[in-house]
């Protein structure tokens, strides 16, 4: 009978045999994979809260200082001079908060000078640097709103009086200068950290 099979064009090896071997191998592999679930758990670290993690949760919460309204909260009907003044004041207040955080961040970064990435000192310094970058954000929002006002004032000045441009441009330059100073500070501290 075996001699008849080759003449009939049937083979023992082909798609049917491959399907059969997959169906037989799958349960064996699944059983072997389940054996890995019974590994010795003492080799792995605990996921319980560590003492250092508890220390982060014991600080007193910071109460936010009263801040100026966000520029995006201003309505389009607000007087342009009032909007520009508010945005300039917002940028200055944000810069003041940035400067208030700079000293502490610089001390943490100086303490981490020469520390290898991933060490506790380096991590604290990287977090302090990220905090400065975050503090820079509020000033960026004010500058972005001043950008929009400057574009509108420039377009208006192209076809008519430039009163709005003379009002917006100095405030825009002031806010841009404050943010450029913050950029230089962040770049210097990042360089000191080695990043």
Which structural traits does this protein have?
single chain, elongated, 195 residues
Report on this structure.
With 195 residues, the chain is mostly helical. The protein has a domain at 93-195. It is built from six helices and no strands. The protein has helices at residues 4-7, 15-36, 51-56, 80-111, 120-159, 163-193. Helix 5 (120-159) runs antiparallel to helix 6. The radius of gyration is 33 Å and the shape is elongated.
Outline type: elongated
Span of the ends, CA to CA: 77 Å
Tally the helices.
Answer: 6
- Rg, nearest Å: 33 Å
The helix-and-strand class reads: mainly alpha
Mean pLDDT: 78
Major β-sheet annotation: none
Range of helix content:
55-70%
What is the H/E string?
HHHHHH
Number of strands: 0
Oligomeric state of the chains in view: single chain
> Uncertain spans, ≥5 residues at pLDDT below 50?
68-77
């Amino acid at each position: 009978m075996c001699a008849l099979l080759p003449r009939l064009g049937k083979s023992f090896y082909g798609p049917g045999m491959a399907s059969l071997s997959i169906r037989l191998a799958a349960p064996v592999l699944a059983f072997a994979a389940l054996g890995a679930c019974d590994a010795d758990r003492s080799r792995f670290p605990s996921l319980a809260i560590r003492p250092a993690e508890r220390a982060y949760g014991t600080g007193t919460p910071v109460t936010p200082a009263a801040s100026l309204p966000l520029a995006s909260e201003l309505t389009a009907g607000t007087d342009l001079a009032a909007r520009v003044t508010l945005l300039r004041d917002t940028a200055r207040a944000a810069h003041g908060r940035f400067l208030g955080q700079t000293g502490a961040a610089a001390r943490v970064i100086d303490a981490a000078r020469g520390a290898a990435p991933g060490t506790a000192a380096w991590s604290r310094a990287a977090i302090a640097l990220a905090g400065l970058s975050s503090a820079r954000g509020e000033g960026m929002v004010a500058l972005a709103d001043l950008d929009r006002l400057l574009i509108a004032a420039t377009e208006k000045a192209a076809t008519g009086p430039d009163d709005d441009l003379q009002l917006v441009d100095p405030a825009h330059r002031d806010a841009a200068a404050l943010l450029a100073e913050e950029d230089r500070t962040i770049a210097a501290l990042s360089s000191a950290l080695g990043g």
